[in-house]
Amino acid sequence: MAKKTNLFMCSSCGNDFPKWAGQCPACKEWNTVSQVFGSYLKPSSNNQNSRSKQPKPQSPKQTLTQAQFSYLSTSISEIDRVLGQGLSPGGVYLLAGQPGIGKSTLLTQLAIKLSQNTSKAASTKKSASKGVLYICSEENSTQVATRVSRFTKADIKELHLLNTSNVETILTQNSLSNYNLIIVDSIQSVQTDLNPTSPGSPSQIKDSANLIIKMAKETQTPIIIVGHVTKAGSIAGPKLLEHMVDSVLELSGDRQHNLRLLRSVKNRFGPTDETGIFEMTGKGLIEVKDPSKFMLAGRVENAPGSSLCLIMEGTRPLTVEIQALVVPSNLAIPRRVVKGININRLQLICAVLTKHLNLPLGNKDVFVNVTAGYKLSEPGADLGIALAIISSIKNQALPINSIAFGELGLLGEIRSVAFQDKRVKEAKTLGYKKTISPENTKHLKDIKL
Fold this sequence. Notes:
The chain is built from twelve helices and 20 strands. The protein has helices spanning 48-52, 60-67, 77-83, 103-123, 141-151, 167-176, 202-219, 240-244, 291-295, 343-357, 382-394, 420-429; strands spanning 2-10, 16-17, 33-41, 92-97, 132-136, 159-162, 181-185, 223-227, 247-252, 259-267, 275-281, 284-287, 306-313, 316-328, 336-339, 364-370, 402-404, 407-408, 414-415, 434-436. The strands form five sheets. A nine-stranded mixed β-sheet has the order 6-5-7-8-4-9-10-11-12. A four-stranded mixed β-sheet has the order 13-14-16-15. β15 (336-339), α10 (343-357) and β16 form a beta-alpha-beta unit. The longest helix has 21 residues, at 103-123. The chain is globular and about 75 Å long. The chain starts with a strand and ends in a 13-residue tail after the last strand.
C-alpha cells in the first residue's frame, strides 16, 4: 500500500530532504527548498517474484550480442552531426530552447522523416516497426496534425499522435506497440499519478522523467523530451533532470534572424563540440549546407569597419563578418555596445589596442556587431574584432579578399588557436588571398592595413 510522506525538495538541484532548511544542503542555494508530497511504495522483502527477476551480471560482449545494438539515422544530416551517429536504442534526449525558437518544428520534421523511412522499409518487408509516437501534452493532436500537413501533403500512417499528459497512459501505449522513436512535448506538461503535485513542479518533473527513462531503457526505444528554459536561459526544473538523461541538446538563435543552431551540451553517445546549422523558413527548418555563404549574405565589400573571421563550430570552419563602428563620444564614460559577443571581451580588446597601438579609444564610442544573429564565444575571433575596430577608427577598409583569426593576448601578441591548419586550408579553399593569422603575424604592431 502506498504511503504518503511529506518531503521538502530543492527547486535548483532536485534533491529532497526530511525537513525544511533556508539553504539547500546539497547545492547551497538560498530559499529554494519547499514542501512537496511524494508517494512511495513500501518495499516488500519477502516477495519471491521480485527476487527471481533480478538481473544477472554479463560481459560486455554478451550484452551487445543480446541487444543487437545499432544507431538509427534521423535522415537529417545536421541532427546526425550533433548526435554523433544517430539515435541510440534506449537513449533519452532532452531538447531545450527559448519559446518559439523552433523545438516543436524541428521534432515534427524529424518525426516525418523517420515515419517516411519506416514506410519505405515496411514496403520492402525489412521492418516490422510502427514508426513514431508523438505525445501531444502541450498542444492537442489537431494542432500537431496541422503542423504536419504544413510540412508534407502525404498521408503518413506511421506517425501516431497521442493526446495525453498522463505518464501512465504513455507507458501503456508503448507497451502495446513497438516504435522507432517517442517524442514527449514537453516534460513540464506531463504528470504521473504517483505524484499529486502540479505539472512543472520539480518533484513532478523528476518522477515523470524517471518513469519515462525507465521505459526507454527497458524497451530499447529512443525518446526525445522537450524541455523549457528559464529567464536566465537554464533548463527549467531540477538540475537532476540533466544528469538523468543521456544527452542534452540546445536549440538557440536570435528570433529576429533566421539562423538556428543545434548544440550538444551533454552527449553520452557522441561528441559535444559539433553544431547543426538551420535556417527558419515558412516551410520549417532547412539545413544550411554552406554556412559561410549564408552568414555573408548581403555583405558590403571593401567597407571600413568590416572584417571577415574564420571560426570553428565543432570541427567545421565557418566564415563570419564582424562589423565595428567607432565614433566620437559626448559622454564622460564612452559607450561599449555589442551584439553577438561578450561586452567584457570588447573592453579587453579596446584596452589592448589603446595600450599597444596608441589608438584614441578613451573618448570614443565603440559598437561591435556579428552579422546574421550569430553569437561568438571562441577566442579565435579576437583578431577579427580588433581588425574591425582598427579599420573603423582609421576609416580604411581591410585588404580585399582578406580573412583573419587568432587569439589576442594582453601584451598585444597574437596567439595560436585550435584547428589552425584546418582554418588556413579552408581560407585557401574559399579563395582568400591574404590570411592574417598567428602563423604570419606575431603582434598587433606587425599588422599593416
